[in-house]
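Let us work through a complete example step by step.
Step 1: write down the sequence.
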Amino acid sequence: MKLTLVRNATLLLEIGNQRILVDPMLGAKGSLNPFAATSGDMSWNPTVDLGVPLSELLDPDLVVVTHTHVDHWDPAAAALLPRTVPLLVQGDADAEKVSANGFIDVRVMDTEIEVGGTTVCRTGGQHGSDEVLQSLPVLGAVSGVVLRHPGEPVIYIAGDSVWNDAVRDALRKHEPDVVVLNTGEATLLAEAHVILMGAQDVVRAHRAAPHAHIVAVHMEALNHCVVSRDRVRDLVRENGLQGQVSVPEDGELLVF
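Step 2: predict the structure and record it as tokens.
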């Protein structure tokens, strides 16, 4: 299996003979409005360019969208991806949103779905604590996914979740070989609502699944994410996890 970090949470997976695009945010640097960041940083998003040429992302065999917030499914993705590509979403509301852009093969992950020999299973998640979701119901539902293909490592992509029972349960149930965590610790408004995992959650995930290789992403691309790659790398070194955690740069290819 090959995993390329495109930017933020956008991944290009090569599993078997398939090219699978996950959470495509394909727009140019500065093409999206800033989020209401606690830090006061009002840079337009994304704050960096794509790490992979756009032309290499427009012919996937499958697209997986963990949720349709604009940093995971942006207007550029909606405009540029082929209308016939199989596109997996977490629920009916997201299916309606994506279908409205003209996509004709949108499938809801209410059960395991097999596409081209790869089985995709939706997992739970939560875009903030119970208190945060009560204050910011607009955050809505989020999901993770587990992908399996014969002869390939099992990969779990946790999605835009904080560390919670749903993530722990997915690690225990699916026993993934590779775990992708969104660790930018996105933080909103004056109340400093944390809506995403941070650096310390890499250590938590390792303790919960010590056999898995962890890949930390969703950093240094959005104005409300406060954890840097160097912060995660420092924590990895402090805990002696250099061989078990990767913190890729945009455009970097990992092979498992």
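Step 3: interpret the result. The longest helix spans residues 165-174.
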